[in-house]
Amino acid sequence: MRWLPIAPAARRTGTDVASNSRPGDRRKPGPPRLSPTRLNCYLECPRQYYFGYVRRLPRRARSYFSFGTSLHAALQDFHEQGGAETQPVETLLENLQTSWVDAGYQTPQEAAVRFDLGQELLTAYYQAAEERQAETLFVEKMLSLPLEGFVLSGRVDRVDRRPDGLLEVIDYKSGGYLPSVDELENDTAIGIYQLLVARKMEETPIIGAIYNLRANQSVSIVRDESQLKQVESRVQSHFQVLSRDTTFTPLPGPHCRYCDYASYCPAAER
Question: Of 127, 159, 129, nearest to 142 (Cα)?
């Protein structure tokens, strides 16, 4: 086991890693960028954030990331080509074959089982999509919002215009857990996605939904302008803490079991 302390010679703050500049890049660095992924990483454990985004230690491939990436890519192409209105289910399943990522699976047999599961999930998704009345506006779109001292950015999975006229931001999940509405209210990522889309489209209120592909169900929450301002205020506060952090104090917990950097961290739960 090799423990990695915070290097005194490189006591950078959390914003250093989020800069637009790269080592050896002579261009003027842009403002720091903060995404839901980075923010959630920091909130879960600042030391994990340090290892991943400041020290830039590599992450190992994990099968569940590959599974989710494969499904996302298949759905992106499906909706970009018109969805169920213009394509048969066979096209969606072919998309999965084309986009399949094998990284992280222990054996070819394990990958094959997951591929079959992916086909089942997408077949059920297609059947639900045939009944859907909403218009898809864009998929897998990167959005940015300049805020005080940094740029908030995130890639939204899908944005629909519902029959009632409201915008709906949809975040796909391929795991087995479907959150409650109360949990969704405290979900950092979905709040940020709602904020980003609302500012781009200049519309409120806006719906944020998590679509669980395994359950083939979604749970959603509506935020109006005042609630979006609360999201923005919380993100600003988190950024202020992160940007001044030089110690990245670890927050051990059950998540340590899945952390790529546990072997470097003496505080990790085992």
Answer: 159
Locate the domains of the chain by residue range.
63-131, 138-235
Q: What is d(CA 158, CA 177) in angstroms, rounded to the nearest whole number? A: 20
The HSE-up count of residue 230 (CA atoms within 13 Å, CB side) is 10
Distance of CA 15 to the CA centre of its chain: 19
pTM: 0.90
Q: How far is CA 126 from CA 76, 84, 91, 129, in A?
A: 13, 7, 10, 5
Going by C-alpha positions, the residue among 48, 68, 38 that lies closest to residue 176 is 68
What tens digit of pLDDT does each residue of 118-161 get? Answer: 999 999 999 999 999 999 999 999 999 999 999 999 999 999 99
Tell me the CATH number for domain 138-235: 3.90.320.10
Contact 140, 116 (CB under 8 A): no
